[in-house]
Specification:
- This protein starts with 13 loop residues before the first helix and ends in a 9-residue tail after the last helix.
- It has 164 residues and is mainly alpha-helical.
- The longest helix has 32 residues, at 124-155.
- The protein has helices at residues 14-32, 37-45, 53-80, 91-121, 124-155.
- It is built from five helices and no strands.
- It has one domain.
Length: 164
């Protein structure tokens, strides 16, 4: 837990930055390399032929890696803290940023758990929630990228510098 007397860092640590960009790359791989796995998995759940075992294994391994990295990120954030939001940011945007970041953690932790339940325990509703959260994750990513652009271009807060 963060010590209340501890100062708030001005930027994310090198490790926090590396974990952030590693998760980004792994999530991108999940959406680009394994984009057909959902359809094939759904087909297999209904008695048809699924994807080859290698593709499924790589998708599952990538998901487990994302889960581990997100839990690590959460532990580091709790231990070391995170930078304060820019003072120039409007209150509504600060609230939205907090909700969005919490949603990122929740979704990126829940998705591998649900995917594992679907794959290993053959729980169809878990597969449905996994797919639903994938769509939600795309929405969060779009919101996050838009917010960074607004900070950089309109509000000139250089928020990207904290994670670069």
């Amino acid at each position: 837990m963060i010590d209340p007397s501890q100062t708030v860092p001005a930027a994310y640590s090198r490790l926090q930055k590396r974990l952030h960009w590693a998760v980004l790359l792994l999530v991108a791989a999940q959406f680009t390399v394994f984009h057909e796995i959902g359809r094939a998995f759904g087909h297999a759940m209904h008695g048809g032929r699924g994807t080859d075992g290698g593709t499924v294994a790589l998708h599952a391994l990538t998901g487990l890696t994302i889960l581990g990295l997100m839990l690590w990120r959460l532990a580091i954030a709790r231990r070391d803290g995170v930078p304060a939001l820019p003072e120039a940011e409007p209150d509504w945007a600060a609230r939205l940023a907090r909700v969005t970041h919490a949603a990122f953690y929740a979704v990126l932790i829940a998705m591998p758990v649900l995917g594992g339940l679907a794959l290993f325990a053959h729980i169809g509703p878990a597969a449905g929630l996994h797919k639903l959260l994938a769509g939600g994750l795309l929405g969060l990513i779009a919101l996050h990228v838009t917010a960074v652009a607004v900070h950089q271009l309109a509000w000139k807060t250089n928020i990207l510098g904290r994670m670069a």
